[in-house]
Amino acid sequence: MKRSKKIVLLAHCLLNVNSKIKGLANYSAHHVDTLKKVVEEELGIIQLPCPEITYLGMDRWGMTKNQYSYPAYRNHCRQLLKPVIDQIREYEKQHYEIVEVVGIDGSPSCGVQYTETGYEGGMVCCDDRNEPQTVRIEESGVYMEELMKLLNEAEISLKFSGIDEK
Ligand code: SF4
């Protein structure tokens, strides 16, 4: 059987940068270094759904973790991830290897090693503060936290890594 039986889970925008908030893109379509690695290592890909575009669409603002850390958004993340957990279970049952989960460091949703906190909301037009409002914190984003919890509940242990696109 000609298949590697190895799979990687990638944050959605690594394969489709168009899902990011407007104005934020360091590549035109795909994160090429990740794709090269995936091809070289003969990994199949599960592209995780983007939790932000499916929640707030393309007109969303840049947000921080404290803003997304809200039960309705966490529940949205879990609903998106449950079918992914089913797939992982099935692959593991069939003795396929899930090599790792790759997130986007700094993202309030998909950060793995770090994310950002700080925005307090309010009318954008009327905020005259000039100081940066966001602070990096050594925590995962909300989506990755929910993925880790669901994996834990399913007693599945996977490696996580985060790409710093800067
Ligand atoms: S939520 Fe995650 S997948 Fe969606 S654009 Fe942000 S980092 Fe990418």
Automatic annotation (TrEMBL):
This is Predicted secreted protein.
